[in-house]
Write a structure and sequence with these properties.
alpha/beta; 7 strands; 15% strand; 313 residues; seven-stranded mixed beta sheet; single chain
């Protein structure tokens, strides 16, 4: 067996340098996050309840541009924020830190539909001040389609419950003998519905004709009323003369005055009518005379022979 030769020191130094270069490149690719490892960076903290596959080295984007990466991920013994016990440290280039203003929020997103996870920073409103190095950035959970699908889970569950109840209602209708089931099974229902629709159509046609006749009658009444109002205003006809001629009104006033005079004379006891209304003795005499006349009439009816005698021969 041939013995291996000795490795020269120069060759060994070259190999060591190549290995260091490869290791450095690998470190830069995993830790640089699309940025230079020599560039100054700011650290920020996020608190999440579920990372959904986010890992150390995942990129951090701001407004669609890669500006850093995930520095560390660890679980906390206690929840700093309700429901969130995972602490995520991210590193962002110091040169763009002025864009991370109060109001900036972090979201977990996916590159594509099934791609790698990354942290998306949504800038807050413009402000002369920015979040300091080491500040906490509020997180809002998943963004994009996955976030929407996650939010849809309760809605989908409600829809499933609704569909299940609807199936139960249909099954009940199919097996029962109630009103709805009878309506669905009765073969005469379509004919009755068609007949009802036809009668409704006829009724609508009749109503249309009636409305046309009514409109014509209303127009006729309007024309007649217009003609009547013109006659009244012009003083034509009996009503027109009553409205425009003062003679009938004066005659009515004169008649009322005469009637008032007559009534006044009667109240004063003048004339026969006045005596009849005001003379108590005359009233008593007339009353006594009427009583006697009634007695005489009754006696004549009861005893006619006493007053009338008839003889044929």
């Amino acid at each position: 067996m041939k013995r291996a030769g000795k490795v020269k020191w120069g060759e060994l130094k070259v190999g060591i340098l190549i290995a260091i270069g490869i290791a450095f490149m690998l470190y830069a690719s995993f830790r640089g996050g699309g940025t230079s490892i020599f560039e100054a960076k700011n650290d920020y903290t996020l608190y999440c309840s579920d990372l959904d596959g986010l890992s150390v080295g995942s990129p951090v984007w701001l407004a669609g541009v890669e500006v850093g990466n995930v520095k560390s991920v660890k679980f906390l013994r206690e929840q700093v924020i309700e429901g969130k016990n995972i602490e995520v440290q991210i590193r962002v280039k110091e040169s763009i830190a002025y864009l991370i203003t109060p109001g900036t929020v972090a979201q977990l997103a996916t590159i594509g539909l099934l791609g790698d996870k990354y942290v998306r920073l949504v800038p807050g409103p413009s402000s002369p001040t920015s979040l300091e190095d080491g500040s906490v950035i509020p997180s809002e959970g998943m963004a994009g389609l996955q976030g929407a699908m996650r939010d849809l889970k309760p809605t989908i569950a409600r829809l499933n419950t609704l569909v299940e109840r609807f199936d139960n209602v249909l099954a009940t209708i199919d097996t029962s003998s109630g009103l709805i089931s009878t309506l669905l099974r009765d073969p005469e229902i379509p004919e009755r519905v068609s007949s009802l629709i036809e009668r409704t159509s006829q009724l609508v046609t009749t109503l249309d004709r009636s409305s046309s006749d009514l409109s014509s009658d209303i127009r006729t009444i309007k024309t007649d009323f217009h003609a009547l109002s013109e006659e009244l205003l012009s003083g034509q006809g009996t009503l027109g003369k009553l409205m425009t001629d003062p003679a009938p009104f004066e005659s009515l006033v004169s008649t009322a005055a005469r009637l008032d005079t007559i009534l006044a004379r009667i109240e004063d006891g003048e004339g026969t009518a006045g005596q009849l209304v005001n003379d108590q003795e005359l009233y008593d005499n007339i009353k006594d005379l009427m009583a006697r006349m009634n007695t005489l009439t009754k006696d004549i009816m009861d005893n006619p022979r006493k007053y009338f005698k008839f003889s044929v021969f």
